[in-house]
Amino acid sequence: MKKLKKLDVEYDQVVVLDFLSETERRKHQITIELESLFKANRIGIMPVYLNNRNDLESIMNTLIQLAKSGKRFMIHFVAHGNVDGIGFKETAEFISWVDLEPLLISLNKECQNTVVLNMTTCFGLHGIKTVNPFSSDKPFFGLIGYTEKLKIVKGKQANSHFYTSVFNGLQFNEALKALQLQTNDLRFHCITSEGYSFLKNKGE
User: Fold this and answer.
1) Strand ranges inside the chain, DSSP E
2) Residue 96 backbone phi and psi in degrees, to 5
3) How are beta strands 45-49 and 80-82 bridged, if at all?
4) What is residue 24's three-state secondary structure?
5) CA dist., res. 105 & res. 111, Å (int)
6) pLDDT score of 196
7) Quick one: CA torsion of 195, 68, 127, 156, rounded to 10 degrees?
8) Residue 51 included in any domain
9) Is residue 18 part of a domain?
10) What CATH number corresponds to the domain at position 175?
11) 174 CB contacts (<8 Å, ≥6 apart)?
12) How far apart are alpha carbons 171 and 103 in whole angstroms?
């Protein structure tokens, strides 16, 4: 069986890309609670509040430039999502997985294939659709996401459980397994681009 690459990297920051409206941010406080959790554990976090596609492209280009100087990032998406992509509910602007793919590929290339995506979105695991299994260019090393609609309360609980496990020394896959046990929910998954491509190519 093919031996898949393991991730061995220390991130400079977790970058939170928040697609929600101001009203939703005040009401649900998803990013605010993430920031509080990270700061309490003295871990670097960069919340970025987005209003539209231009904001998304701008921050991704900034991260790409920072990655060229050696910075490494984990990207956490807080957004509305479906099986086809994520978007801005207030403006109805939609970012398909196809749209997101080239931005992620550019960032992951500069980060030497170390980018991990964590999706606080409905159907976040469908972000795997940014991966072309027949290409050597990968949009990320790994993806953490939910297979179905994700309720806000559960999403916030998942964030807290997962990152607390990581802060306590667990690897991402181990933290994901702990999250499944803590929430009694096997719909949280993690998958690597390499593993997905291997399975898809094997099935051809």
Assistant:
1) 13-18, 45-49, 73-78, 80-82, 85-88, 93-96, 116-120, 142-146, 188-192
2) -75, 160
3) unpaired
4) helix
5) 10
6) 85
7) 110
8) yes
9) yes
10) 3.40.50.1460
11) 165
12) 26
The two structure tokens encoding residue 182: 């803590």
Amino acid present at 179: L
4 is a domain residue: no
| pLDDT in the model for residue 201 | 73
Cβ atoms of 177 and 144 within 8 Å: the answer is no
- Express each pLDDT in 5-52 by its tens digit: 554 568 999 999 999 999 999 999 999 999 999 999 999 999 999 999
pLDDT < 70 stretches in the chain: 1-9, 200, 202-204
> Are the C-beta atoms of 194 and 5 separated by less than 8 Å?
yes
Q: What global pTM score does this model have?
A: 0.93
Amino acid at 164: T
Residue 59 belongs to domain spanning: 13-203
Residue 8, in any domain of the structure:
no
The number of distinct structural domains making up the chain is 1
- CA 108 to CA 175: how far, in whole Å? 22
pLDDT at position 3 = 43
